[in-house]
């Protein structure tokens, strides 16, 4: 078996630990590995190099992905995938590990249906895949978000200010939800539990009436026009409101121990699935157990984390 590994979609801290685990597990089982650079784009271009166990030493602590990543429209067309098939044949690659998010898995499923053995590893900071409790990168990003919020809080406290902090997540509120659970915010609005402008104002008013004049409002990206929300609160409550979009600072950085361990376990599980002749499946973690499921069960529908929402209700104002 010639095994290829690629990273696709947005980079996520921990992807390198997954690459390391894939290469080492394969080599341990006498399987040669090639790294495909820049995701599906590199696959179509034949941007491929051999990866040995020595090549992947000392990479698990690095953020981003040593293989680089890309979003590739051409691969979404049949023609692009035919091109990829030719390259796989040319390089004698008959099995593939794809590390990425939902989109990357859709592409992987299409390759699987074309007869390539493919297994997916969830690498996305958004944690928006419902089949797995955690995806690689989420924990590191959560810690980055908490760190940023702690700094904003110091200034807000000193100046009695209110700040709206917009965090990533695409259409999933996990980054905002868990940062609030960890003590990062006072009011939270996420796609799963959206607060309208008036509700945010009345929650702020309640805090201010108790002389809590430093307030962090955490919101998930793409939910509101931030400036509109800021102006609405200022008009309604007569206070200055700051806005901070954390943006790309959330993506990079050294992966947390949790992400490194998770990525390592997932890398091993992915290669073991391929060795045992499985294909068309994504590995994940549920209730602390490694699991795998068919690509067709992977989706990003809103996660109804009821228990977590209930806890949040008790912890924040
Ligand atoms: P992230 O969650 O970080 O955004 P992702 O894997 O969901 O990661 P996408 O940009 O959605 O990121 O997808 C990555 C790549 O996967 C796309 O650029 C494209 O090459 C491929 N892809 C996405 N959707 C499909 C599809 N329906 N069919 C074939 N390939 C796809």
TrEMBL record:
GO BP term (any one): fructose 6-phosphate metabolic process
Pathway(s) served: Carbohydrate degradation; glycolysis; D-glyceraldehyde 3-phosphate and glycerone phosphate from D-glucose: step 3/4
Active site: 126 (proton acceptor)
Regulation affecting activity: Allosterically activated by ADP and other diphosphonucleosides, and allosterically inhibited by phosphoenolpyruvate.
Phosphofructokinase domain boundaries: 3-274
Molecular function GO labels: 6-phosphofructokinase activity; AMP binding; ATP binding; fructose-6-phosphate binding; identical protein binding; metal ion binding; monosaccharide binding
Predominant location: cytoplasm
Annotated binding of ADP, by residue: 20-24, 153, 184-186, 212-214
Record InterPro entries: ATP_PFK, ATP_PFK_prok-type, PFKA_ATP_prok, Phosphofructokinase_dom, PKF_sf
Residues engaged in binding ATP: 10, 71-72, 101-104
Assembly: Homotetramer.
Function statement: Catalyzes the phosphorylation of D-fructose 6-phosphate to fructose 1,6-bisphosphate by ATP, the first committing step of glycolysis.
NCBIfam families the record matches: PFKA_ATP, PRK03202.1
Name of the protein: ATP-dependent 6-phosphofructokinase
């Amino acid at each position: 078996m010639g095994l290829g590994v690629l990273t696709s979609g947005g980079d996520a801290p921990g992807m390198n630990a997954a690459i390391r685990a894939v290469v080492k597990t394969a080599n341990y089982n006498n399987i040669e590995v090639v790294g495909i650079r820049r995701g599906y784009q590199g696959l179509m271009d034949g941007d491929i190099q051999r990866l040995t166990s020595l090549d992947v030493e000392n990479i698990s602590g690095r953020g981003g992905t040593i293989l680089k990543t890309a979003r590739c429209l051409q691969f979404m067309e049949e023609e692009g995938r035919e091109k990829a098939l030719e390259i796989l044949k040319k390089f004698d690659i008959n099995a593939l590990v794809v590390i990425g998010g939902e989109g990357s898995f859709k592409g992987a499923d299409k390759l699987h249906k074309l007869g390539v053995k493919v297994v997916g590893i969830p690498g996305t900071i958004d944690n928006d895949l419902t089949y797995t409790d955690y995806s690689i990168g989420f924990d590191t990003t959560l810690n980055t978000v908490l760190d940023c919020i702690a700094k904003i809080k110091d200034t807000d406290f000193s100046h009695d200010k209110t700040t709206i902090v917009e965090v990533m997540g695409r259409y999933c509120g996990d980054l905002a939800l868990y940062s609030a659970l960890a003590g990062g915010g006072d009011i939270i609005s996420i796609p799963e539990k959206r607060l309208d402008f008036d509700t945010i104002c009345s929650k702020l008013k309640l805090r201010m009436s108790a002389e809590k004049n430093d307030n962090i409002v955490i919101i998930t990206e793409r939910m509101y026009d931030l400036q509109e929300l800021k102006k609405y609160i200022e008009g309604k409550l007569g206070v200055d409101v700051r806005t901070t979009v954390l943006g790309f600072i959330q993506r990079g950085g050294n992966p947390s121990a949790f992400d490194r361990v998770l990525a390592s376990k997932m890398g091993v599980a992915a290669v073991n699935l391929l060795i045992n002749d499985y294909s068309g499946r994504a590995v994940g973690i549920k209730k602390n157990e490694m699991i795998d499921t068919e690509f067709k069960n992977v989706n990003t529908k809103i996660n109804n984390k009821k228990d977590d929402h209930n806890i949040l209700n008790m912890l924040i104002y």
